[in-house]
Give the backbone structure.
Amino acid sequence: MLSTEAEACRSLTDQQRTLMQKARIFARKEIAPHAQELDWTAKFANTIYKKMARQGLLGITVPAKWGGAESDTLSYALVMEELSNGYASIADLCGLVELCATLLNELGTEAQKQRYLVPLLKAQTTCSFALTEPDAGSDLAALAATAEKNSRGFILNGSKHFIHNGPICDFALVLARSPAAKADDRAMSIFIVESSYPGFSRGVKENKMGQRASQLSSLYFKDCQLPPDAVLGIDGDGFKHMMVVLERGRIGIAALSLGLMRSALENVLKDTADKDRANSAKADSQTVQWAIANMATDMYAAQAMIAQAARLKDQGIPANTQASMAKLFASEAAVKHTGIAVQITGIQGYTQGNVLERLYRDAKVTQIYEGTSEVQRIIIARSLQRGGLTP
Ligand SMILES: Cc1cc2nc3c(=O)[nH]c(=O)nc-3n(C[C@H](O)[C@H](O)[C@H](O)COP(=O)(O)OP(=O)(O)OC[C@H]3O[C@@H](n4cnc5c(N)ncnc54)[C@H](O)[C@@H]3O)c2cc1C
Protein backbone atom coordinates (compact mmCIF):
# COMPACT_ATOMS: atom_id res chain seq x y z
CA MET A 1 0.00 0.00 0.00
CA LEU A 2 2.67 2.47 1.06
CA SER A 3 4.87 1.62 -1.86
CA THR A 4 2.06 1.78 -4.43
CA GLU A 5 1.26 5.37 -3.52
CA ALA A 6 4.91 6.28 -3.65
CA GLU A 7 5.21 4.57 -7.03
CA ALA A 8 2.61 6.87 -8.54
CA CYS A 9 4.56 9.93 -7.35
CA ARG A 10 7.86 8.73 -8.73
CA SER A 11 7.02 8.83 -12.48
CA LEU A 12 8.77 5.58 -13.20
CA THR A 13 9.56 4.19 -16.62
CA ASP A 14 8.23 0.74 -17.53
CA GLN A 15 11.65 -0.79 -16.97
CA GLN A 16 12.02 0.83 -13.54
CA ARG A 17 8.53 -0.28 -12.49
CA THR A 18 9.06 -3.83 -13.75
CA LEU A 19 12.32 -4.21 -11.84
CA MET A 20 10.81 -2.73 -8.69
CA GLN A 21 7.83 -5.08 -8.85
CA LYS A 22 10.06 -8.06 -9.49
CA ALA A 23 12.17 -7.14 -6.44
CA ARG A 24 9.05 -6.58 -4.34
CA ILE A 25 7.59 -9.99 -5.15
CA PHE A 26 10.98 -11.60 -4.58
CA ALA A 27 11.30 -9.87 -1.21
CA ARG A 28 7.86 -11.00 -0.08
CA LYS A 29 8.17 -14.60 -1.26
CA GLU A 30 11.85 -15.42 -0.98
CA ILE A 31 13.35 -13.05 1.60
CA ALA A 32 10.89 -11.92 4.28
CA PRO A 33 9.88 -15.46 5.37
CA HIS A 34 13.55 -16.22 6.14
CA ALA A 35 14.61 -12.88 7.64
CA GLN A 36 14.22 -13.79 11.31
CA GLU A 37 15.99 -17.11 10.88
CA LEU A 38 18.87 -15.51 8.96
CA ASP A 39 19.20 -12.89 11.68
CA TRP A 40 19.23 -15.61 14.32
CA THR A 41 21.69 -17.98 12.64
CA ALA A 42 23.80 -15.20 11.03
CA LYS A 43 24.50 -17.52 8.09
CA PHE A 44 25.26 -16.50 4.52
CA ALA A 45 22.00 -16.61 2.52
CA ASN A 46 23.44 -18.74 -0.27
CA THR A 47 20.10 -20.00 -1.65
CA ILE A 48 18.65 -16.49 -1.81
CA TYR A 49 21.86 -15.22 -3.44
CA LYS A 50 21.56 -17.79 -6.24
CA LYS A 51 17.84 -17.10 -6.69
CA MET A 52 18.50 -13.37 -6.85
CA ALA A 53 20.89 -13.95 -9.76
CA ARG A 54 18.36 -16.17 -11.56
CA GLN A 55 15.74 -13.40 -11.17
CA GLY A 56 18.07 -10.80 -12.73
CA LEU A 57 18.44 -8.86 -9.46
CA LEU A 58 22.25 -8.64 -9.50
CA GLY A 59 24.16 -6.06 -11.51
CA ILE A 60 21.20 -3.72 -12.05
CA THR A 61 23.19 -1.07 -13.93
CA VAL A 62 25.50 -3.50 -15.76
CA PRO A 63 24.92 -4.19 -19.49
CA ALA A 64 22.97 -7.34 -20.38
CA LYS A 65 25.91 -8.70 -22.40
CA TRP A 66 27.74 -9.27 -19.08
CA GLY A 67 24.64 -10.65 -17.36
CA GLY A 68 23.33 -7.44 -15.77
CA ALA A 69 19.85 -5.89 -15.89
CA GLU A 70 21.10 -2.98 -18.06
CA SER A 71 19.05 -0.44 -16.14
CA ASP A 72 19.81 2.81 -14.30
CA THR A 73 20.67 4.11 -10.83
CA LEU A 74 17.04 4.83 -9.97
CA SER A 75 16.14 1.21 -10.76
CA TYR A 76 19.00 0.13 -8.54
CA ALA A 77 17.65 2.29 -5.69
CA LEU A 78 14.14 0.87 -6.15
CA VAL A 79 15.48 -2.70 -6.06
CA MET A 80 17.51 -1.93 -2.92
CA GLU A 81 14.45 -0.47 -1.17
CA GLU A 82 12.32 -3.52 -1.98
CA LEU A 83 14.97 -6.09 -1.03
CA SER A 84 15.64 -4.27 2.23
CA ASN A 85 11.92 -4.27 2.95
CA GLY A 86 12.35 -8.06 2.99
CA TYR A 87 15.65 -8.11 4.89
CA ALA A 88 18.44 -5.51 4.89
CA SER A 89 21.32 -8.03 4.72
CA ILE A 90 20.04 -9.25 1.36
CA ALA A 91 19.85 -5.71 0.01
CA ASP A 92 23.36 -5.13 1.27
CA LEU A 93 24.53 -8.21 -0.61
CA CYS A 94 22.91 -6.87 -3.79
CA GLY A 95 24.62 -3.52 -3.11
CA LEU A 96 28.01 -5.15 -2.67
CA VAL A 97 27.67 -7.00 -5.98
CA GLU A 98 26.53 -3.76 -7.65
CA LEU A 99 29.65 -1.89 -6.50
CA CYS A 100 32.07 -4.64 -7.56
CA ALA A 101 30.22 -5.27 -10.84
CA THR A 102 30.17 -1.53 -11.66
CA LEU A 103 33.93 -1.29 -11.17
CA LEU A 104 34.56 -4.41 -13.23
CA ASN A 105 32.22 -3.24 -15.98
CA GLU A 106 33.54 0.32 -16.15
CA LEU A 107 37.24 -0.39 -15.67
CA GLY A 108 37.84 -4.04 -16.52
CA THR A 109 39.50 -5.45 -19.61
CA GLU A 110 37.55 -7.96 -21.71
CA ALA A 111 39.50 -10.78 -20.01
CA GLN A 112 38.78 -9.42 -16.50
CA LYS A 113 35.08 -9.13 -17.30
CA GLN A 114 34.93 -12.70 -18.59
CA ARG A 115 36.84 -14.06 -15.60
CA TYR A 116 35.18 -12.08 -12.75
CA LEU A 117 32.07 -10.17 -13.84
CA VAL A 118 30.20 -12.88 -15.74
CA PRO A 119 30.39 -15.58 -13.00
CA LEU A 120 29.68 -12.98 -10.30
CA LEU A 121 26.37 -11.93 -11.85
CA LYS A 122 25.38 -15.61 -12.08
CA ALA A 123 26.15 -15.88 -8.33
CA GLN A 124 28.69 -18.57 -9.17
CA THR A 125 31.25 -16.58 -7.18
CA THR A 126 31.25 -14.13 -4.28
CA CYS A 127 33.12 -10.83 -4.13
CA SER A 128 34.42 -8.32 -1.60
CA PHE A 129 35.11 -4.62 -1.82
CA ALA A 130 38.08 -3.95 0.47
CA LEU A 131 38.95 -0.41 1.49
CA THR A 132 38.82 -0.12 5.28
CA GLU A 133 41.93 -0.77 7.38
CA PRO A 134 42.51 -0.72 11.14
CA ASP A 135 43.99 2.81 10.84
CA ALA A 136 42.07 3.96 7.77
CA GLY A 137 38.28 3.96 8.11
CA SER A 138 36.76 7.37 7.47
CA ASP A 139 40.18 8.69 6.47
CA LEU A 140 41.03 6.58 3.43
CA ALA A 141 44.00 8.82 2.61
CA ALA A 142 45.73 7.11 5.57
CA LEU A 143 45.58 3.75 3.82
CA ALA A 144 48.69 1.62 4.42
CA ALA A 145 48.33 -1.49 2.18
CA THR A 146 51.05 -1.52 -0.48
CA ALA A 147 51.69 -3.33 -3.74
CA GLU A 148 55.27 -3.49 -5.01
CA LYS A 149 56.15 -4.58 -8.54
CA ASN A 150 58.22 -7.75 -8.97
CA SER A 151 59.11 -10.00 -11.91
CA ARG A 152 55.83 -11.93 -11.65
CA GLY A 153 53.49 -8.95 -11.18
CA PHE A 154 52.88 -7.35 -7.77
CA ILE A 155 53.49 -8.27 -4.14
CA LEU A 156 50.64 -7.11 -1.91
CA ASN A 157 51.09 -6.49 1.83
CA GLY A 158 48.62 -5.13 4.35
CA SER A 159 45.30 -5.88 6.00
CA LYS A 160 41.68 -4.82 5.58
CA HIS A 161 39.01 -5.14 8.25
CA PHE A 162 35.21 -5.29 8.50
CA ILE A 163 35.04 -6.51 4.91
CA HIS A 164 31.61 -7.66 3.73
CA ASN A 165 31.78 -11.23 2.39
CA GLY A 166 35.33 -11.45 3.83
CA PRO A 167 34.78 -14.97 5.25
CA ILE A 168 33.52 -16.36 1.94
CA CYS A 169 34.74 -14.21 -0.97
CA ASP A 170 36.32 -15.84 -4.03
CA PHE A 171 37.95 -12.54 -4.96
CA ALA A 172 38.27 -9.05 -3.54
CA LEU A 173 38.75 -5.63 -5.13
CA VAL A 174 41.46 -4.25 -2.87
CA LEU A 175 42.53 -0.60 -2.70
CA ALA A 176 46.29 -0.26 -2.06
CA ARG A 177 49.21 2.01 -2.75
CA SER A 178 51.07 0.94 -5.86
CA PRO A 179 54.45 1.97 -7.31
CA ALA A 180 52.60 4.46 -9.54
CA ALA A 181 51.19 6.02 -6.40
CA LYS A 182 54.27 6.97 -4.43
CA ALA A 183 54.16 10.72 -5.05
CA ASP A 184 50.58 11.46 -3.98
CA ASP A 185 48.78 10.27 -0.82
CA ARG A 186 45.53 9.80 -2.79
CA ALA A 187 47.17 7.94 -5.66
CA MET A 188 46.26 4.30 -5.17
CA SER A 189 45.25 1.36 -7.33
CA ILE A 190 42.53 -1.27 -7.25
CA PHE A 191 43.81 -4.84 -7.36
CA ILE A 192 41.75 -7.94 -8.10
CA VAL A 193 42.90 -10.45 -5.50
CA GLU A 194 41.71 -14.05 -5.69
CA SER A 195 41.39 -15.92 -2.43
CA SER A 196 43.51 -18.76 -3.87
CA TYR A 197 46.59 -16.53 -4.29
CA PRO A 198 49.46 -17.44 -1.94
CA GLY A 199 49.66 -15.00 0.97
CA PHE A 200 45.89 -14.37 1.13
CA SER A 201 44.15 -15.21 4.43
CA ARG A 202 41.02 -14.25 6.36
CA GLY A 203 40.23 -13.36 9.97
CA VAL A 204 37.39 -14.84 12.01
CA LYS A 205 33.80 -13.92 11.19
CA GLU A 206 32.64 -10.83 13.12
CA ASN A 207 29.62 -11.13 15.39
CA LYS A 208 27.49 -8.04 14.79
CA MET A 209 24.53 -6.26 16.36
CA GLY A 210 22.46 -6.06 13.16
CA GLN A 211 22.35 -7.16 9.52
CA ARG A 212 23.70 -10.33 11.04
CA ALA A 213 23.48 -12.47 7.89
CA SER A 214 26.03 -10.17 6.21
CA GLN A 215 29.37 -11.93 6.60
CA LEU A 216 32.23 -9.73 7.78
CA SER A 217 35.89 -10.46 8.48
CA SER A 218 39.38 -9.09 8.06
CA LEU A 219 41.46 -9.95 5.01
CA TYR A 220 45.23 -10.31 5.31
CA PHE A 221 47.81 -10.08 2.54
CA LYS A 222 51.30 -11.27 3.43
CA ASP A 223 53.68 -11.14 0.48
CA CYS A 224 50.62 -12.04 -1.57
CA GLN A 225 51.72 -12.63 -5.16
CA LEU A 226 49.43 -11.01 -7.77
CA PRO A 227 49.71 -11.50 -11.55
CA PRO A 228 50.66 -8.48 -13.74
CA ASP A 229 47.06 -8.09 -14.95
CA ALA A 230 45.64 -7.80 -11.39
CA VAL A 231 45.26 -4.00 -11.63
CA LEU A 232 41.70 -2.86 -12.32
CA GLY A 233 41.54 0.42 -14.25
CA ILE A 234 44.36 2.92 -14.46
CA ASP A 235 47.26 2.27 -12.10
CA GLY A 236 47.27 5.15 -9.61
CA ASP A 237 43.62 6.18 -10.17
CA GLY A 238 42.03 3.70 -7.73
CA PHE A 239 41.02 6.22 -5.07
CA LYS A 240 39.23 8.35 -7.67
CA HIS A 241 37.45 5.29 -9.12
CA MET A 242 36.32 4.19 -5.66
CA MET A 243 34.93 7.63 -4.80
CA VAL A 244 32.87 7.70 -8.00
CA VAL A 245 31.39 4.26 -7.41
CA LEU A 246 30.62 5.18 -3.78
CA GLU A 247 28.18 7.82 -5.08
CA ARG A 248 26.00 4.99 -6.32
CA GLY A 249 26.79 3.05 -3.14
CA ARG A 250 25.45 5.84 -0.96
CA ILE A 251 22.26 6.13 -2.99
CA GLY A 252 21.91 2.37 -2.50
CA ILE A 253 22.35 2.59 1.28
CA ALA A 254 19.86 5.47 1.42
CA ALA A 255 17.37 3.22 -0.39
CA LEU A 256 18.17 0.32 1.93
CA SER A 257 17.44 2.63 4.90
CA LEU A 258 14.14 3.61 3.29
CA GLY A 259 13.19 -0.05 2.88
CA LEU A 260 13.86 -0.62 6.59
CA MET A 261 11.75 2.38 7.54
CA ARG A 262 8.91 1.21 5.33
CA SER A 263 8.99 -2.16 6.99
CA ALA A 264 8.83 -0.49 10.43
CA LEU A 265 5.87 1.67 9.39
CA GLU A 266 4.04 -1.30 7.86
CA ASN A 267 4.46 -3.23 11.11
CA VAL A 268 3.37 -0.31 13.29
CA LEU A 269 0.28 0.18 11.12
CA LYS A 270 -0.52 -3.53 11.42
CA ASP A 271 -0.14 -3.35 15.16
CA THR A 272 -2.16 -0.21 15.69
CA ALA A 273 -4.88 -1.03 13.14
CA ASP A 274 -6.08 -3.95 15.24
CA LYS A 275 -9.04 -2.24 16.88
CA ASP A 276 -10.33 -5.40 18.52
CA ARG A 277 -7.42 -5.50 20.81
CA ALA A 278 -7.26 -3.91 24.19
CA ASN A 279 -4.88 -1.30 22.88
CA SER A 280 -7.32 0.49 20.59
CA ALA A 281 -7.01 3.57 22.80
CA LYS A 282 -3.31 3.50 22.17
CA ALA A 283 -3.88 3.26 18.40
CA ASP A 284 -5.93 6.43 18.45
CA SER A 285 -3.60 8.30 20.74
CA GLN A 286 -1.83 11.39 19.49
CA THR A 287 1.52 9.84 20.39
CA VAL A 288 0.99 6.98 17.96
CA GLN A 289 -0.61 9.08 15.26
CA TRP A 290 2.16 11.68 15.34
CA ALA A 291 4.79 8.97 15.21
CA ILE A 292 3.11 7.40 12.17
CA ALA A 293 2.74 10.76 10.45
CA ASN A 294 6.36 11.76 11.13
CA MET A 295 7.64 8.43 9.89
CA ALA A 296 5.61 8.59 6.66
CA THR A 297 6.70 12.20 6.07
CA ASP A 298 10.38 11.35 6.47
CA MET A 299 9.92 8.36 4.16
CA TYR A 300 8.40 10.64 1.56
CA ALA A 301 11.30 13.10 1.88
CA ALA A 302 13.86 10.27 1.66
CA GLN A 303 12.16 8.90 -1.48
CA ALA A 304 12.38 12.31 -3.15
CA MET A 305 16.04 12.79 -2.19
CA ILE A 306 17.02 9.32 -3.39
CA ALA A 307 15.17 9.74 -6.69
CA GLN A 308 16.75 13.17 -7.29
CA ALA A 309 20.30 11.94 -6.58
CA ALA A 310 19.73 8.85 -8.77
CA ARG A 311 18.31 10.87 -11.66
CA LEU A 312 21.24 13.30 -11.56
CA LYS A 313 23.65 10.38 -11.67
CA ASP A 314 21.73 8.83 -14.57
CA GLN A 315 22.02 12.12 -16.47
CA GLY A 316 25.80 12.05 -15.99
CA ILE A 317 25.71 15.00 -13.57
CA PRO A 318 27.95 14.63 -10.47
CA ALA A 319 25.65 13.68 -7.61
CA ASN A 320 28.14 13.34 -4.79
CA THR A 321 26.54 15.95 -2.53
CA GLN A 322 22.98 14.84 -3.25
CA ALA A 323 23.94 11.20 -2.67
CA SER A 324 25.49 12.15 0.68
CA MET A 325 22.40 14.15 1.65
CA ALA A 326 20.11 11.25 0.75
CA LYS A 327 22.28 8.77 2.68
CA LEU A 328 22.58 11.05 5.71
CA PHE A 329 18.87 11.82 5.85
CA ALA A 330 17.57 8.32 5.17
CA SER A 331 19.94 6.53 7.54
CA GLU A 332 19.34 8.97 10.41
CA ALA A 333 15.58 8.70 9.81
CA ALA A 334 15.74 4.89 9.71
CA VAL A 335 17.48 4.71 13.10
CA LYS A 336 15.13 7.27 14.62
CA HIS A 337 11.90 5.74 13.35
CA THR A 338 12.74 2.08 13.95
CA GLY A 339 13.51 3.17 17.53
CA ILE A 340 10.17 4.97 17.82
CA ALA A 341 8.42 1.91 16.34
CA VAL A 342 9.88 -0.24 19.12
CA GLN A 343 8.78 2.36 21.67
CA ILE A 344 5.19 2.41 20.39
CA THR A 345 4.85 -1.36 20.54
CA GLY A 346 6.42 -1.55 24.01
CA ILE A 347 7.80 -4.81 25.30
CA GLN A 348 6.42 -6.68 22.27
CA GLY A 349 8.63 -4.69 19.90
CA TYR A 350 11.59 -5.00 22.26
CA THR A 351 11.40 -8.78 22.50
CA GLN A 352 13.75 -10.96 20.49
CA GLY A 353 11.90 -12.52 17.57
CA ASN A 354 9.79 -9.43 16.99
CA VAL A 355 10.47 -7.88 13.61
CA LEU A 356 10.76 -4.35 15.03
CA GLU A 357 13.52 -5.38 17.40
CA ARG A 358 15.48 -6.69 14.41
CA LEU A 359 14.76 -3.62 12.26
CA TYR A 360 16.07 -1.35 15.02
CA ARG A 361 19.32 -3.34 15.17
CA ASP A 362 19.56 -3.61 11.37
CA ALA A 363 19.13 0.16 10.95
CA LYS A 364 22.03 1.26 13.15
CA VAL A 365 24.83 0.34 10.77
CA THR A 366 23.39 2.50 7.98
CA GLN A 367 24.84 5.48 9.89
CA ILE A 368 28.29 3.86 9.81
CA TYR A 369 29.07 2.00 6.59
CA GLU A 370 29.64 3.59 3.16
CA GLY A 371 30.80 6.66 5.08
CA THR A 372 29.53 7.61 8.53
CA SER A 373 26.92 10.34 9.07
CA GLU A 374 29.71 12.66 10.20
CA VAL A 375 31.62 12.04 6.97
CA GLN A 376 28.47 12.74 4.90
CA ARG A 377 28.11 16.08 6.71
CA ILE A 378 31.74 16.91 5.91
CA ILE A 379 31.18 16.09 2.20
CA ILE A 380 28.01 18.23 2.07
CA ALA A 381 29.57 21.19 3.90
CA ARG A 382 32.75 21.11 1.78
CA SER A 383 30.71 21.08 -1.39
CA LEU A 384 28.81 24.18 -0.26
CA GLN A 385 31.97 25.94 0.94
CA ARG A 386 33.51 25.35 -2.49
CA GLY A 387 30.56 26.97 -4.17
CA GLY A 388 28.88 23.74 -5.29
CA LEU A 389 25.22 22.69 -4.98
CA THR A 390 22.58 25.28 -4.48
CA PRO A 391 19.88 23.45 -2.55
C1 LIG B 1 28.41 -3.95 8.59
C2 LIG B 1 29.62 -3.29 8.03
C3 LIG B 1 30.05 -3.64 6.75
C4 LIG B 1 31.19 -3.07 6.22
N1 LIG B 1 31.62 -3.46 4.99
C5 LIG B 1 32.76 -2.96 4.49
C6 LIG B 1 33.27 -3.43 3.24
O1 LIG B 1 32.69 -4.30 2.59
N2 LIG B 1 34.41 -2.87 2.77
C7 LIG B 1 35.09 -1.92 3.45
O2 LIG B 1 36.12 -1.48 2.96
N3 LIG B 1 34.64 -1.46 4.66
C8 LIG B 1 33.51 -1.96 5.19
N4 LIG B 1 33.04 -1.53 6.41
C9 LIG B 1 33.80 -0.55 7.15
C10 LIG B 1 33.14 0.83 7.11
O3 LIG B 1 33.24 1.38 5.82
C11 LIG B 1 33.80 1.68 8.20
O4 LIG B 1 33.32 1.18 9.43
C12 LIG B 1 33.46 3.15 8.05
O5 LIG B 1 34.10 3.70 6.93
C13 LIG B 1 33.90 3.95 9.29
O6 LIG B 1 35.22 3.68 9.59
P1 LIG B 1 35.62 3.24 11.09
O7 LIG B 1 34.65 2.22 11.54
O8 LIG B 1 37.05 2.91 11.06
O9 LIG B 1 35.35 4.51 11.97
P2 LIG B 1 36.34 5.75 12.21
O10 LIG B 1 36.77 6.33 10.92
O11 LIG B 1 37.36 5.33 13.18
O12 LIG B 1 35.34 6.75 12.90
C14 LIG B 1 34.92 6.63 14.24
C15 LIG B 1 33.98 7.80 14.55
O13 LIG B 1 34.67 9.05 14.35
C16 LIG B 1 33.97 9.85 13.41
N5 LIG B 1 34.91 10.58 12.57
C17 LIG B 1 35.96 10.08 11.87
N6 LIG B 1 36.58 11.05 11.20
C18 LIG B 1 35.93 12.21 11.49
C19 LIG B 1 36.09 13.58 11.11
N7 LIG B 1 37.07 13.95 10.30
N8 LIG B 1 35.23 14.48 11.62
C20 LIG B 1 34.23 14.13 12.45
N9 LIG B 1 34.01 12.84 12.85
C21 LIG B 1 34.85 11.91 12.37
C22 LIG B 1 33.17 8.86 12.57
O14 LIG B 1 32.07 9.49 11.96
C23 LIG B 1 32.77 7.85 13.62
O15 LIG B 1 31.65 8.31 14.32
C24 LIG B 1 31.90 -2.10 6.97
C25 LIG B 1 31.46 -1.73 8.24
C26 LIG B 1 30.36 -2.34 8.77
C27 LIG B 1 29.94 -1.97 10.17
User: Anything to note?
Assistant: The chain has a mean pLDDT of 93. The chain is about 55% helix and 15% strand. The longest strand covers residues 153-164. Residues 238-273 form the longest helix (36 residues).
